[in-house]
Design goal:
By secondary structure, the chain is α+β, with helices and mostly antiparallel strands. It is about 55% helix and about 10% strand.
Length: about 240
């Protein structure tokens, strides 16, 4: 009988111990679950700061010194003849990038540097063979120069370069108040065809391969660069 009492007492203590162990394990598991489920909320309330991106470095102007830079020749120019910086542009009147330069960049160059006597701006021709009216457009500006309207014709052609026809140039001449008989005779006789071809040959010999192409003094600049690029090059040349 004493043995039975002893066994019953032992079993009672065992049950109590098992119950305590179960309670402890259950409580701990519940805390882990609660902590885990709370973690996303804590993360959401304290997000990791996003680093500020570093702005890309500004592109350097595409200007390459060349030994055989093109000269102004006898072509039309704007600005002071003895300005400290000379820009020579080789253009194609049906080139969309030349048109972009004429519309977006040239006016700023003119305002800041040509009109202030710092830049002499020369226009030379580089009509590409796959543009149907580019050669005649260049000749038309030369014929207009005979009547002191080169830059007016230059602007007129660019402003209408998406709709050029063989008859366009005579109409432009009339719009500009030129003597159309003299203008038409000049254009139809190919008076300046060789002059335009000479410009193109001089450009090619100096490394021009497409349009627009430029020389800023002896620095070759390729493509329709933004005004900021021209400004950086001009300012460097003015030092």
């Amino acid at each position: 009988m004493d043995n039975n009492l002893h066994l019953k007492g032992t079993n009672g203590w065992a049950l109590i111990c098992f119950a305590l162990i179960g309670f402890i394990l259950g409580y701990g598991t519940n805390e882990v679950i609660n902590f885990t489920s709370a973690a996303p909320t804590l993360a959401a309330n304290n997000p990791t700061p996003t680093p500020t991106p570093t702005p890309p470095a500004a592109k350097k102007p595409n200007a390459i010194p060349v030994a055989n830079a093109a000269t102004a020749d006898d072509d039309a120019f704007l600005g002071e003849e003895d300005a400290p910086v000379t820009i020579i542009e080789f253009t194609d009147y049906q080139c969309p990038f030349c048109s972009r330069h004429f519309t977006n960049t040239f006016p700023e160059i003119k305002k800041e540097y040509i009109d202030t006597g710092k830049v002499k701006y020369v226009l030379r021709d580089y009509p590409l063979g796959f543009h149907q009216f580019a050669q005649k457009a260049s000749e038309a500006t030369e014929c207009a120069e005979d009547q002191d309207k080169f830059w007016e014709m230059h602007a007129k052609v660019f402003e209408n370069n998406k709709s050029l026809t063989a008859e366009s140039f005579s109409k432009f001449a009339a719009d500009l108040g030129l003597d159309t008989s003299k203008f038409d005779e000049c254009l139809n006789s190919d008076k300046y065809a060789e002059e335009v071809k000479k410009d193109m040959a001089d450009g090619s010999a100096s490394g021009i391969t497409g349009t627009p192409g430029f020389f800023v003094n002896d620095k070759k600049v390729t493509g329709a660069q933004p005004f900021a690029s021209f400004k950086a090059i001009i300012e460097e040349e003015l030092k």
